[in-house]
Design brief:
Blueprint: H1 13-24, E1 27-33, E2 46-51, H2 57-65, E3 83-88, E4 92-96, H3 107-123, E5 127-135, H4 142-154, E6 158-163, H5 170-184, E7 195-196, H6 205-215
Parallel strand pairs: 2-4, 2-5, 5-6, 6-7
Antiparallel strand pairs: 1-3, 3-4
Helix pairs in contact: 1-6, 3-4
Keywords: Cell cycle, Cell division, GTP-binding, Magnesium, Metal-binding, Nucleotide-binding, Septation
Function: Necessary for normal cell division and for the maintenance of normal septation.
Protein name: Probable GTP-binding protein EngB
């Protein structure tokens, strides 16, 4: 049976304010993790951001937090191969994964990173949801399917966040959303709503904050 993937509805004013307050509080880079034994204790909910290189993860995290430099920690030399943990006060962790296309390293180093990513995504008990970022200009690519299939097999729910929606026209965006909807039919772990964003214009940021706020309660 075909599943519909509409845009997420606009959050209520109360949900918008609750999400704003969550991200207006302390947001701190905690650590970069290079091995499973280095993970923080699973004592709070985790939300993970994944996507291809240059999909706009750092820009999105900066827009969510309202802090222009908060995600720079994941882009400094030596951290690009790590799982980067950011604390939302003592409420939750945001986890930033390096882009799928990261390849400026020896093959053995890339293989080690890929193994770490797979182990984390498949076995983290407090991982509430993975946000799979998809560039509005390109849609879902084969490398995206690889990670989505891993999440299917691990029964980890993921939700597509479309980035850079301001970079294309309305007609092209509609075509991209149709392509994403068709491709997501292959993935049972996909949450049946899309969040369309522009970090530069602020579109969709309130909706994404509200979703994260709801996911990290309790």
């Amino acid at each position: 049976m075909k599943v519909s993937f509409p845009r997420a509805p606009a959050p209520s004013p109360a949900a918008v304010e609750s999400g704003r307050l969550l991200f207006a509080g302390p947001v701190d880079f905690i650590k970069g993790v290079v091995a499973m034994e280095g993970l923080p204790d699973p004592d709070r909910p985790e939300i993970c951001f994944a996507g291809r290189s240059n999909v706009g993860k750092s820009s999105l995290i900066n827009a969510l937090t309202g802090r222009k430099g908060i995600a720079r920690a994941s882009n400094t030399p030596g951290r690009t191969q790590e799982l980067n943990f950011f604390a939302l006060g003592d409420r939750a962790y945001l986890v930033d994964l390096p882009g799928y296309g990261f390849a400026k390293a020896p093959v053995a180093v890339v293989a080690k990173w890929q193994a770490l990513q797979k182990r984390y995504l498949a076995g983290r008990p407090n991982l509430r949801r993975v946000f799979a970022l998809i560039d509005a200009r390109h849609g879902i690519k084969p490398v995206d399917h690889e990670t989505m299939t891993l999440l299917d097999r691990s029964a980890v729910p993921f939700q597509v966040v479309v980035t850079k929606a301001d970079k294309i026209g309305a007609g092209a965006l509609a075509q991209t959303l149709a392509q994403i909807e068709a491709e997501l039919q292959k993935h049972p772990a996909a949450f049946p709503e899309l969040i369309v964003t522009s970090s530069e214009k602020g579109h969709g940021i309130e909706a994404l904050r509200a979703v994260i706020d709801a996911l990290t309660r309790g």
